[in-house]
Design brief:
Layout lengths: L1 E10 L2 E11 L7 E4 L4 H4 L1 H11 L9 E6 L11 H12 L6 H5 L1 E3 L2 E2 L5 E2 L4 H11 L3 E5 L3 H4 L6 E5 L2 H8 L31 H13 L3 E4 L6 H7 L9 H13 L15 E2 L7 H5 E2 L4 E2 L1 H4 L4 E4 L7 H5 L2 H6 L1 E6 L2 E6 L3 E6 L18 H8 L4 H5 L3 E4 L5 H4 L8 H18 L13 H7 L4 H14 L3 H17 L7 H11 L6
Parallel strand pairs: 3-4, 5-8, 8-9, 10-17, 10-18, 11-14, 14-17
Antiparallel strand pairs: 1-2, 2-4, 6-7, 12-13, 15-16
Helix pairs in contact: 2-3, 8-18, 8-21, 20-22, 21-22
């Protein structure tokens, strides 16, 4: 006799339907075989399933058992197939009425412990979000995945504790209340760095506000101890609150990466990723035997902060070219080709030279001109061209350090940023874009109209600063954000002038 149970396999942040078929008899007594391109973790399910069934109080079949995971051309990885494998075997050998129609509408996920209890798995969110497309309206999963799963609306989710409970539920011996969808409540984090605690650096703060409002890339350069890292970390406190669809989008990435926990079942705030400069290219873009999200995907809809920017390996930096332009990253490995989202704000910080004091009015630079040139060449022109805002962070004077008047706090700046983002979302509602940085040349021509004086100013800048086509469009995007912050419908000449001011910093390098 054979039986079929439905499960699913994660492919990037999407999923594919998997048929778990069990057949008994026709071979060596007591043998247990799993086919369908399983990895080591799936092969080890044989021992977990045997023990779980036995410790649930049932007998494991003494005949040959063959389990097929179809389609066979998709690699099956991880322990999430334990539950459907165990159920398919029990359905194939049981005389109890389970109900074929019920199984047709259901997906089963979960790792089995030896005592039959269910352990949480990764990748639950991508599976559930695509379940509705498949017409699978009922999901059975471990209890520890229930809060994470409750983010998705429109499906019925049962959170079960063990194999025995799910068997009783399927045979009608018990009833279980489905998991209720949760309404996310915004929580303001109080332990973030606040702009009010940072004295001086008004130009850098203004650049960070523009970057946060439009999702633009930013590079800060200045002497050691000027406050570049502190400013970058304070940026999180002025970023706009995540929309519900953004929470789900980001949480899916973290679910696939196995970084969601019972205490943190979804992302409440925009991610801030700050990898060390020794990070490898694979850790940045993603990879592994089965491609996992890298730092640039984990920073999706948030900030990727690269401190000591030129100290990163050149290849690691160059790998950011395509993701910064397209907002996605394609990871190609022997195991398969995966596409992950990578719509990030790149915020980088660097010293002006190896010793850190080139151009500093107080400290003497000890670097030779060749050393300084070599240091700057570690960052290529194409990468610099993709950075919208270049700002110098000068040394803080003693008077500024001793100032007792508090600076503008993050809450006030964040309110302006959120209003600017709201205007952008409303303006680009049909394009389904969230910020100005996402605009393509087509949207720029549609939403970034300038008057005659602004066009003349921009023409002069293109000629004098030798702006590339990409640089031209990025200036317009930044000018659009500045106009949004100023609550202006049209882009005016002062907005373009300020955008060019930040762009011109690239010529220093």
């Amino acid at each position: 006799m054979s039986a079929k149970i439905w499960s699913a396999a994660c492919v990037g942040i999407s999923a594919e339907l998997v048929e778990v078929e069990a057949d008994t008899g026709g071979g060596q007594l007591g043998s247990f075989t799993i086919v369908g391109l399983p990895d080591a973790a799936v092969q080890e399910a044989k021992e977990r399933v045997r023990s779980a069934i036995r410790n649930t109080g049932l007998d494991f079949p003494k005949v040959k058992v063959t389990v097929n995971l179809a389609p066979a051309d998709i690699k099956k990885q991880g322990p999430g197939y334990d539950l459907p494998i165990a159920l398919s075997i029990l359905v194939a050998t049981s005389r109890q009425p389970f109900g074929e129609v019920f199984f047709d509408k259901s997906i089963f996920l979960g790792e089995l412990a030896l005592d039959g209890s269910l352990r949480p798995i990764s990748g639950v969110l991508p599976i559930i979000t695509t379940a509705k497309i498949w017409g699978k309206s009922i999901i059975f999963l471990p209890k520890d995945n229930s809060v994470e799963a409750s983010l998705v609306k429109g499906v019925t989710i049962y959170a079960v504790e063990n194999l025995k409970q799910i068997l009783q539920l399927l045979t009608g011996k018990i009833e279980l209340e489905p998991v209720r969808p949760i309404n996310r409540v915004s929580s303001k984090t109080s332990n973030l760095s606040n702009f009010a605690d940072i004295q001086g650096q008004e130009q850098a703060k203004r650049a960070l506000e523009i970057a946060a409002a439009g999702g633009h890339n930013l590079l800060m350069s200045g002497s050691p101890g000027a406050g570049k890292t502190l400013l970058a970390r304070a940026l999180v406190s002025i970023l706009p609150e995540l929309l519900d669809e953004e929470v789900l989008e980001i949480s899916k990435i973290y679910s696939v990466a196995g970084m969601l926990t019972r205490n943190a079942p979804f992302l409440e705030h925009r991610p801030f990723r700050s990898p060390h400069h020794t990070a490898s290219a694979v850790s940045m873009v993603g990879g592994g035997s089965w491609p996992r999200p890298g730092e640039i995907s984990l920073a999706h809809r948030g900030v990727l902060f690269l401190d000591e920017f030129p100290e990163f390996a050149r290849q690691t930096i160059e790998n950011l070219r395509q993701p910064l332009e397209d907002g996605v990253i394609h990871v190609s490995r022997i195991a398969g080709n995966i596409t992950y989202p990578a719509r990030v704000m790149l915020v980088a910080a660097m010293n002006p030279c190896p010793c850190g004091y080139f151009g500093d009015p107080k400290a003497l630079c000890t670097c030779s001109s060749s050393q300084i040139s070599s240091y700057h060449k570690k960052i290529s022109g194409p990468i610099m061209d993709r950075i919208d805002l270049h700002v110098i962070v000068p040394r803080i004077s003693f008077g500024e350090l001793q100032q007792t008047t508090p600076a503008e706090n993050s809450q006030l700046i964040r309110s302006r940023v959120e209003l600017a983002r709201k205007r952008q979302v409303e303006r680009m509602l049909e394009e389904k874009m969230y910020c100005n940085a996402e605009m393509s040349s087509k949207q720029i021509k549609k939403f970034c109209q300038i008057d005659a004086s602004g066009e003349k100013l921009l023409q002069q800048a293109v000629e004098k600063l030798n702006l590339s086509a990409r640089g031209y469009y990025r200036v317009l995007k930044v000018a659009r954000t500045i106009a949004d912050l100023a609550e202006e419908i049209n882009i005016l000449s002062p907005h373009i002038a300020e955008a060019l001011q930040y762009r011109s910093k690239a010529q220093v390098f």
